[in-house]
Amino acid sequence: MAAAQEVKIGMLLTDQVQLLDMAAVDLLQMASPEYMRIVGVPEPVASQGKPVKIIYIGKQGATKVQEVTATSGVCLTHTTADSEVAPGSLDILLIPGPDPNNLPDQETLDFVRAHNEHKTTMLVICTGALLGAHSGIYNGRNVTGPRMLEPLLKQQFPDVHWDFSIRSLQDGHLWTAGGITNGLDLVASYIRATYPKEVAEFVCSMAEVGDRPLKYEA
């Protein structure tokens, strides 16, 4: 069996983001052959995994540290201007939630719009909804977002088809999540939809995610 092609994931960190939002990317790492072999998954299943490369994209540039919540930081590897993260170069663009009080800059908005036009798979978590909405890529799309921001989002972005009754939602190449921990529900849903069944079952079982209903109980 031929080795699976590497999945290149760009994580957009152009502002201080939630550390817990970022953590959802680890589910994709768990779906790699390397991780599954470390924890003893049988080779017929491990060989179906997809190796990943995670790229950290921020305005400050490579080797600079982007602060995130919980008094932590992440070493950036690229800026939005680097050719390696241009549309067509990434398989997934993951957008964790930034500070909702800060407006995104034009360079960031253009970067998101360009990837949307190329139909790069986008995984947007929590207040990342504000970046998606400000960029205009949410207009006319079926998306969700954090319930705590429902009044603000509906008022400021009336052209978006918001659904705050669900933890995660897919509309074509655009995958969106509600509040912080819904990022795990989102990535679990993405893995179940796009990875071999045996790999998806391993990841969701190992991480104990993806079992709660996508619809909120109340």
UniProtKB/TrEMBL annotation:
Domain DJ-1/PfpI: 53-191
InterPro entries associated with the record: Class_I_gatase-like, DJ-1/PfpI, INH-QAR
Pfam families xrefs: DJ-1_PfpI
Top-level taxon in the UniProt lineage: Eukaryota
Protein name, as recorded: DJ-1/PfpI domain-containing protein
